[in-house]
Design brief:
Structural class: alpha/beta
Strand content: 5-15%
Order of helices and strands: EHEHHHEHEHHEHEHEHHHH
Number of helices: 13
Strand order of the largest sheet: 3-4-2-5-1-6-7
Distance between the termini: 7 Å
Length: 262
């Protein structure tokens, strides 16, 4: 089992959409995936058609079992009718109580210890995180095998990216746990604008091959979200789905190179 965490200390960069779609895409291709909504705003929970609930808080603070808090995501929210769905996606939902988790954890390794309950059963765990750093983030880092950083090609988002990578490296040094910086995903990208083109070039100059294919700004993302569907379900042959499949291809390369699944 591998644990993937999406990070950026800046909101509005498409982190939740990317978390949901990476989890959903891996499930479509045959993995048993558990998506953990670690943001008190509960956007991943809402996007997948569930009401906000204290699933994550119950798991980590009230010591509920995964079987008590996980929710099976309906295939028609993930994949278009008539298309193959080889795996399954389960969600640990969130709500405003997640804001209190940082103060309730007994030690930084608590999240990792709970995630171990899924080892041998799940293939991949995906964390969608809040943009504001906290001690809860530190606990998630300890449980993380690889991190993915969504960013828009705008200054505030790029600054959040720098802070997030710095904080991740600090955590690696402090806890002496290897966490792979897997990739940086430019999101909401507008290729015909000088600003985004300039910042994309700067991003690639600084990070090289760590910069993965961009996800362009497309109306399908908003339309699918309105219907509480993925773009795979809403417009499976569209350009938005094609964009995010390229990201999932990159994730699968990592998983295949580090095969510890089942």
């Amino acid at each position: 089992m591998k644990t993937l965490t999406l990070l950026n200390e800046k909101g509005g960069v498409g982190k939740t959409s990317l978390s949901v779609h990476i989890a959903a895409g891996l499930a479509i291709r045959g993995k048993r995936v558990v998506l953990i909504d670690a943001d008190a705003q509960a956007n991943a929970t809402l996007l997948l058609g569930f009401e906000e609930s204290a699933g994550l808080y119950d798991l980590l603070v009230r010591e509920a079992s995964f079987s008590d808090v996980m929710r099976q995501v309906a295939p028609d929210a993930i994949q278009a009718e008539g298309r193959p769905m080889k795996g399954e996606l389960l969600l640990v939902p969130s709500n405003v109580e997640a804001r209190n988790i940082a103060g309730m954890l007994q030690n930084p390794g608590d999240v990792m210890e709970r995630i171990k309950d899924l080892d041998g059963w799940a293939d991949v765990v995906v964390f969608d995180t809040a943009p504001t750093p906290s001690l809860f983030h530190s606990a998630i880092y300890i449980a993380t095998d690889a991190a993915i950083f969504p960013t828009t090609c705008e200054q505030m988002s790029l600054a959040g990216l720098e802070k997030s990578i710095t904080r991740l490296n600090q955590q690696i040094g402090f806890h002496n746990r290897p966490i792979k910086l897997l990739g940086i995903v430019p999101t909401i990208y507008r290729p015909k604008t000088a600003l985004h083109s300039y910042n994309m070039a700067a991003l690639k100059e600084q990070f090289g091959a760590l910069v993965w294919p961009e996800i362009q700004q497309r109306i399908a993302w908003s339309e699918a979200s309105q219907l509480r569907q993925t773009v795979f379900a809403y417009d499976p042959d569209g350009a938005a789905a094609a964009d995010v499949w390229r990201i999932i291809d990159q994730v699968e390369v990592y998983l295949e190179q580090n095969e510890t699944i089942r």
